[in-house]
Design a protein that fits this description.
Elements: H1 3-25, H2 29-45, H3 47-54, H4 60-73, H5 78-89, H6 96-110, E1 113-120, H7 126-140, E2 143-150, E3 158-162, E4 165-168, H8 171-185
Parallel strand pairs: 1-2
Antiparallel strand pairs: 1-3, 3-4
Helix pairs in contact: 1-5, 1-6, 2-6, 4-5
Length: about 190
């Protein structure tokens, strides 16, 4: 991990821990979980929001006002709203994507779940996703939440990432292995 990335993840980790602990203490983790999904969707869909959190030109007060308005409009949990306000005041909003990821991981861990990043050549059906989650649960010993994406360049098969483990059964990967084996022979 590069130094700036590790600094960002360290900052995100500290804020995530504080927000998580406060939400857990006030028994509002389910609401926090929905806030995280809403904020992630807002970040994905709003170029203006991404600009606000990354802007070195916008003042701390300006960022704070935007975050306060966002918290009010989205009806964010007080722990999340106050956390965003503190982050704005300290010019730490640039770590918001990492914060949301870390908070999701902490909530999943608290619930005894793990998230699997699954990339497939075609969208998984509900039956396929359920069967994969059941198989992964047997392997990792925890409930598995599937986060599926589609990458047509895989040709077929799946790439599954659970924590630091990766299982690559894609046809693209197999073709690359075959090509490397052929180069060694010839």
């Amino acid at each position: 991990m590069s130094e700036p990335a590790s600094i960002s993840s360290g900052i995100a980790e500290r804020y995530a821990t504080a927000i998580f602990e406060i939400a857990k203490e006030s028994e509002s983790l389910p609401k926090l979980e929905s806030n995280i999904a809403d904020l992630a969707a807002a970040l994905d869909s709003s170029e203006e929001l991404r600009e606000v959190i990354a802007s070195p030109v916008l003042s701390r007060a300006g960022q704070g006002k935007v975050m306060a308005a966002l918290a009010k409009k989205m009806k964010l949990e007080p722990a999340m709203g106050n956390g965003l306000a503190v982050m704005a005041g300290k010019r730490r909003l640039f770590v918001l994507p990492q914060l949301l990821t870390r908070l999701s991981d902490m909530i999943a861990e608290d619930k005894g779940e793990v998230t699997a990043q699954v990339t497939s050549a075609k969208a998984l059906t509900k039956t396929q996703a359920d069967k994969l989650a059941k198989t992964l649960k047997a392997r990792v010993g925890k409930d598995v939440k599937i986060n599926a994406t589609v990458d047509e360049s895989l040709i077929g098969g799946l790439v599954v990432k659970v924590g630091s483990k990766m299982i690559d059964t894609s046809i693209r990967s197999r073709l690359n292995s075959l090509q490397n084996a052929m180069k060694e022979v010839g």
